[in-house]
Amino acid sequence: MSRISLIVFSCILFSGCTRSSSSTSVSFYYWRTSFQLTPAEQETLALNEVTKLYVRYFDVALKDGKPIPVSPITFKDSPGKATVVPVIYIKNEVMLHLALEAEDLAKKIVTYIDQINTRYAILCTEIQIDCDWTLTSKETYFNFLERLKKVSNRKLSATIRLHQVKFHMNTGIPPVDRGVLMYYNMGRISADSLNSIYDPMIAKRYTGALKNYPLTLDIALPVFTWGMHIRNNKVIALLNKVDNAAFTNDIHFEMRAPSFFEVKENVIKIGRYFEKGDRIKIESITPDELEGMAEDLSGYLREKPQEVIFYDLDNFNLKHYPNEKQFFQKVSRYF
């Protein structure tokens, strides 16, 4: 019996692994362009009894004045018994385009999703749209969502930012079945010492409004780490999937403060050119911080969320969290 099979069998055998139907379940976002789970990712899903994955299918952007799909996913592995929710990221520029035909876009998105599902024998009963709409694009975006809901004949969810919760009288409530509160990326990307992924002081400016938000919400929490390439005190690039370990033992870099490195001499590293005097800022969320985020947020919610969705499932991200049994379930229990 494989290690993963043994884990699953043990959870069935011992009642301590049984979750009540009222529990907040654990899900993950999958944000790569090729679906292929590693053994570590499979183990995390098994240990935390994950039965649903929110998989980015493609982005939608403008090209020559027309919305087009960008970087569609391919499935090298089957998702198995996991329920798949296609997630479509739509750039706000699409919703700002004056000549946009909302119903035509809705039909094309559903057709493309169905083509992917047919090709890889995937069934889905929900679609999620990720779009950071603005006051200017609100009317077009909400019209698009209404048409997508009708055309797809599926449940529809949408991501919600904190500012869209606090100022919902102006930003509006998207016409979807459920929202997913993105409880991260709440600060501005900058060269200072603040963490743009999560800042508790910034969070407190918005969380008080959650009890008055009328849309049912699930929660998305961050488990990613990234870096910022800083030159002349300005961020010139984001460095995805980069942590302290990438620079700690490199003689070309010196840690000047926690999570800040200075470039000692010109060097090419991780496919980028760094000049002497440049700085790298690493931002992450520790396991304790993740639990603290969940505990703090739980006290502000109008109702218990059905799911906590962690962003995102990836070996690089998972290595920063305890390999203890059911760590992500532990976080979900704060709700």
Short descriptors:
335 residues, 12 helices, TIM Barrel, Lipoprotein, eight-stranded parallel β-barrel, alpha/beta
Oligomer type: single chain
Strand content: 25-35%
Reported for the largest beta sheet, the result is:
8 strands, parallel, barrel
CATH class of the largest domain: Alpha Beta
CATH superfamily of the largest domain: Glycosidases
Structural category is: alpha/beta
What distance separates the N and C termini? 35 Å
Uncertain spans, ≥5 residues at pLDDT below 50? 1-21
Please tally the helical runs, counting DSSP H or I stretches of 4 or more residues.
12
Protein name: Lipoprotein
Organism: Ohtaekwangia koreensis
Give me the secondary-structure topology.
Layout: H1 3-13, E1 25-30, E2 34-35, H2 39-47, E3 52-63, E4 66-70, E5 74-75, E6 83-90, H3 92-96, H4 102-119, E7 126-130, H5 138-152, E8 155-160, H6 162-166, H7 168-171, E9 178-182, H8 200-207, E10 217-222, E11 226-231, E12 234-240, H9 245-248, E13 253-257, E14 260-263, E15 267-269, E16 272-274, E17 279-283, H10 287-298, E18 307-311, H11 315-318, H12 327-332
Parallel strand pairs: 1-3, 1-18, 2-5, 3-6, 6-7, 7-8, 8-9, 9-10, 10-18
Antiparallel strand pairs: 3-4, 11-12, 11-17, 13-14, 14-17, 15-16
Describe the structure.
- This protein has twelve helices and 18 strands.
- It is α/β, with parallel strands linked by helices.
- The chain folds into two domains: 19-224 and 285-332, Glycosidases (TIM Barrel); 226-283, no CATH class.
- The chain has an eight-stranded parallel beta barrel.
- Helix 1 packs parallel to helix 2 (39-47) and helix 4 (102-119) crosses helix 5 (138-152).
- The longest helix is centred in the N-terminal third of the chain and has 18 residues, at 102-119.
- The chain is globular and about 60 Å long.
- The protein starts with a helix and ends with a helix.
- Residues 1-21 have low confidence and may be disordered.
- It comes from Ohtaekwangia koreensis.
- This is Lipoprotein.
